[in-house]
Amino acid sequence: MNRFHFLEKHHGMLRKSAALLRGATALCMTAVLFFGALPIFGDAGGAELWNSLYKDSPLDEGEAVLTINGHDVMPDEYLSYVMPYVVNADGNGSQDGEEAVNSIRQSAENDIRTNYQLMMWAEEEGYLTEDVTEDEYREALAAEEEAAGGKEALDAQKASNFMTDEVYELRLRQSIVQGKLRQFVYSEGSPYITPTDEELKEIYDAYQFYTTKQILIFSSDDPEQDMKKKETAVEALNALKDGKTFEEVMELYNEDPNAMGTDTVYIAKTGDLFSEYETAARALAVDEVSSIITSQVGYHIIKRVEPSAEDLRTQVSIYFENYKVNEKMNDLMYAEEIVYGKHYEEIDPGKIATE
Question: What is the CATH code of the structural domain delimited by 8-17+210-306?
């Protein structure tokens, strides 16, 4: 690590989190919906399609696989969640073994539940599939065809995922609705990206952050120069003992290139900073100052401080989106109502015929 960027690890992590958070949340909202673009099975109905692809299907005619939040997941829709896992598990589309069967069933169920939790969230915010206009649907369909390389290519992708026209349309409309939800979540003033001071403090405590100032004297690879660096660090510590304020000593001795004046604080959580730094910092009480701490970049004198509201807003708010979305998804998970069909446990994805 470049020794002139002591907090490069910390700030790099923050930048990556900020970038990945928005992308990961968006992916959570849409990836469960599609496995590419989506076959056309003519007029085959759900039960007929199910029985044509499953050997010895235990399902009765018209029986739902499961019901979630009042929505019956029929065989053809369920199959669209199952098949990608079957095909990914084995190149020829077959899967053997009770453990594999249970794994596929559970993975498909997780995707279904996530999808309908998002649909419940969308409904709470006033976004409904029945409100998707035909123009919106045609525009989304055209975009899918273009992304796939044309209508025929899109149909081929549908076929590979065992999707009927009806299921494809359902999930595309759901995708449109969830796109609207995502746009709302990240809109200016949204409660999911605009935290209050109290919410930021809640996140600070939940993530077990700690806040510090530091005086950093870089070490040197040259033994003689490094000895002088150590002596400088001792001078700085003695200046503190003689009554100078931490900020006064920072101004005189600090070599940290990331410090923007004596007000600079670093808010970090476990693993963000060097282990020697974190161990020493966490052992301090607020306003307490450490002895000289040695790390791979040099010599640190650390002061534990209480973060201001502005500190929290500038350094902790990037965690807020992930925190709030996860909190909301947890609430939806506990609020969902799921009823399994009477033959649910008998469904065997390992018996899917791909001929």
Answer: 3.10.50.40
